[in-house]
Amino acid sequence: MSQPIADLAALEALYGQPGAASVAKEVTRLTSGYRALIEASPFFVLATSGPDGLDASPRGDAQGFLRVADERTLLIPDRRGNNRVDSLRNILHDPRVGLLFLIPGVNETLRVNGRAVIDVDPALCDSFAVDGKAPKSVLVVTIDQVFFQCARAVLRARLWDPTAQVAPDRLPSIGALLAEASAGREGGEAYERSLNERIPKTLY
Q: Domain Pyridoxamine 5'-phosphate oxidase N-terminal: where (predicted)?
């Protein structure tokens, strides 16, 4: 039988209070250590909220692609994607964002909560150009909270363990996934071949 938790008092009674270190690690600005983690990360997940619900979007590039403007401000180029712009639509509705940074080989992660605006200043966008191609916009994130997350989740997942990697041929292909989701309207081998050829040419 389901036994849902319905109030904060019941939740706190179940889990107890956080340890002193879990509270002390949270700050409202980037420390030198937290900045080092961000600058070493080539990948993060961007969480947003909009009128149609929630979204979590992967963002990645070479280390240092995300620029630390100051201890309270991050600048993030919006690299090419599929033009759904789910995250950007949500930010227009609700500027609150959550970022989860991962660093290959490092078990700790970094969490940033803040507020974002979409900036299309040409000089700013051009400053993030790669191979002469500038992003169409840059997210300017004002930090409200930043703290590291301990290693338990990554260790349990064996995320960086080469022996835990899944062979791609054990899973449905991208073409098969799209064909199934669209009831055959899109996808298939032709789509997959086209995508595999197109992606390396359209990273920026």
A: 34-150
Instruction: Provide DSSP, the chain.
Output: ------SHHHHHHHH-PPPHHHHHT-BSS--HHHHHHHHH-SEEEEEEEETTEEEEEEEE-STT-SEEEETTEEEEE-----S--HHHHHHHH--EEEEEEE-TT---EEEEEEEEEEE--HHHHHTT-BTTB--S-EEEEEEEEEEEE-SHHHHHHTTT-GGGPPPGGGS--HHHHHHHHTTTSS-HHHHHHHHHHHGGG---
Domains in the chain, CATH or no CATH each: 19-159 (2.30.110.10), 166-204 (no CATH)
Contact 136, 78 (CB under 8 A): yes
Backbone phi and psi for residue 187, each to the nearest 5 degrees, phi listed first: 95, -155
Decide: pTM greater than 0.85. yes
Q: Which residues pair with 45 in a beta bridge?
A: 58, 100
Dist. CA 146–CA 144, nearest whole Å: 7
